[in-house]
Design brief:
13% strand; alpha/beta; 212 residues; binds thymidine-5'-diphosphate; Rossmann fold
């Protein structure tokens, strides 16, 4: 049994996860915190990330894509997430296994049973204690994005709409793990909602600031 706390953040591209994570880092100052982003988080996973997000790699098939995300996840779980949880730390993950179900499953149409098995194998049963889903309309997500679109972002609005529906379906199936936040509101409201939820979890698990 791990002693730490594992929180993941999910949402379509442009849903504001990165800004929220920066805010949560300020709020959680004093706690033993470890941040990871997926795909990535370790040197090996970052190399796999380069393959996955490179716009030149349009030949990757949906199943290969799923395997690559799983490989990157396997590495970060073994190298960083599991040891951190065993040391009693709080792990904040910018995306985790739900991204695979939403993107490769609902977005690309890869068989969901296959993906659940893959997720089980690559996480070795290391699941988030809680997941914050920033729910947003794809058109708003698109408007908020800046910089050059990566391979997944280039898929467009219809793809993002399927991903969003996938997330909402997961949130309905696992209502006790998910906390869905309407991310179309002003950032202060979104942040307030997320912090309130996080503090509730921390208190319920007996965490205090500097308790690490
Ligand atoms: P990133 O630039 O990190 O996007 P964001 O800031 O929105 O998280 O790119 C990650 C991309 O990879 C994003 O488009 C979602 C996609 N992805 C999957 O398709 N499957 C997965 O399992 C994961 C973890 C990410």
């Amino acid at each position: 049994m791990s002693k730490g706390l594992f929180i993941s953040l999910e949402g379509i591209d442009g849903s504001g996860k990165t800004t929220l994570i920066q805010h949560l880092n300020r709020v959680l100052e004093g706690y033993p915190l470890v941040n990871i982003r997926e795909p990535g988080g370790t040197a090996i996973s970052e190399k796999i990330r380069e393959i996955l997000l490179n716009v030149d790699n349009h030949q990757i098939t949906p199943r290969t894509e799923a395997f690559l995300y799983a490989a990157a996840r396997s590495q970060v779980v073994e190298q960083l997430i599991r040891p951190s949880l065993e040391q009693g730390k709080i792990v904040l993950a910018d995306r985790y296994l739900d991204s695979t179900i939403a993107y490769q499953g609902y977005g690309r149409g890869v068989d969901l049973e296959f993906l659940h098995t893959l997720n089980y194998l690559c996480t070795a049963g290391t699941l988030p204690d809680a997941t914050i889903l920033l729910d947003l309309e794809p058109a708003l997500g698109e408007a908020r994005r800046h910089g050059k679109a990566d391979r997944l972002e280039k898929e467009g609005r219809e793809f993002q709409a399927r991903v969003r529906q996938g997330y909402l379906q997961l949130a309905r199936q696992e209502a006790e793990r998910f906390h869905v936040i309407d991310a179309s509101r002003a950032f202060d409201d979104v942040a307030h909602d997320a912090v309130e939820y996080l503090q509730k979890i921390l208190v319920s698990r007996g965490w205090k600031p500097d308790a690490g």
